[in-house]
Amino acid sequence: MELLSDSLAILARWDVVAALLVGSVGGVIIGAIPGVGAAVAIAILLPATFSLDPIVGLTALLGIYGSSMYGGAIPAILINTPGTAVNALTTYEGTPMTKRGEARRALSLAYSASFFGGVFSVICLILLSPVLAKIAPMFGSREIFLASLLGVILVVLAHRGQIMIAGMMACFGIWLNTIGLEPIQYSQRYTFGQSWLAGGVDLIVVVLGLFAISQAFVLLVEPDKRSKAESITGGLLSGFKELALYKRVATASSSFGVAMGMIPGVGEFTAQFMSYTYAQKSSKTPEQFGNGSPEGLIASEAANNAVPAAAMIPLLALGIPGEALTAMMLSVFYVHNVVPGPGLFQNQMDFVVALYIALLMLNVLVVIFLLFSTNILLKVIEIPTRFLGIVVLTLSFVGVYSLRNSPIDCAIAGAFGIFGFILKRLNLPIVPIILGMVLGGIMEAKLRTSMMRVKTPLDFIDRPIAFILFLIILAVVASHFYGMAQRRKNTRSNIK
Known about the structure:
Radius of gyration: 22 Å
Strand order of the largest sheet: 1-2
Largest sheet: 2 strands, antiparallel
Helix content: over 70%
Oligomer: single chain
Mean pLDDT: 80
Order of helices and strands: HHHHHHHHEEHHHHHHHHHHHH
Number of strands: 2
């Protein structure tokens, strides 16, 4: 009870409450605008959060992260255009329901499933926090290095069909992190005698370039679009009653979201497809999937909204981000000299629980907001895309310049914006670059620390958790190559 009261005291501050309101409402609005998304919004807001307390900045960013998928369901259902990438599966069932005149029912089911998934994941993680507090101190330098290495491998392998290029992008991100002064002996690396490279390539500059500025270029280059959706009449509470009829699907999908969110490099897409496949195979009416199945809609929305809270586990417990958005949040910790990892669970458990309670409150606030403002949000969908592009581009460069008042940072961000634009046009992965930068720094620091105690290679895995992580890495790599061999074998047999 003392831990809970301390956590509530942290959240009771007016600036934390304001950040939660701004983040949750702002995230819904951002999610409802096709072509923007949470990654762009968080990238633009990052520089502003550096001047705030960690709990205030993280609450605002978590609000955007957790609520954007609620908003993304609106255009996905009404105009067959997902507001965020993770709402793509929602179009499979939401759009057919809209076409047959059930838009209100589809939105109501999406809101209720999202709320269930979000609350379910937070409750699970609050219950798991005492266990995590005991396990986290068992992770030393070697364990965190191996966990980071596992994260890089999982991120690369998650890009099926693009594994080679994803691996190259991750290595490029790791290399970017090495530019500048080396952290132990302070010797210069890859600066080529240029003083402006001595400080290294700033993660936030790269994030703003690859995500925000590149997306602005995409919006500016593409033909101007102005979508329009019909207004919704009637209440939106009926979905909560209907959700009770599909509680098995909602619970299973939320569980997939929690499990996949805790694994670095996996995230919403894997959770969605696993939950959607499970819902279809276990349904009494599988023929309805793709034609407006309420079970498919619930599976998609419950799974993706269960991920944000779970994705905070590797970030808080080990300091290892699972995907781009949590990698951005990690920079907020570093700016304020708050080090995520075992020590955070040991010494600042009230801070961790406060973040989870904030996520719980976020879901409540978002649902209340959506029940009364869905028709107002339809106006947001109508904003011309090129106007959005100009706004995003302007805010991005303002954010970059505000970091260090440096025109060079603006030039670097612009260069990465062009690079990100090219990658998006070629449909190549961007996320491995960011995770390579973040995890590469962690891996280097932990490897150099651990090598002082390691005499032989076997000494590196002579502790239980290190050995388990090593076995998991071997199993993941082996299963990937086995899968490749099986696919080649099947392809050859089909040719014959």
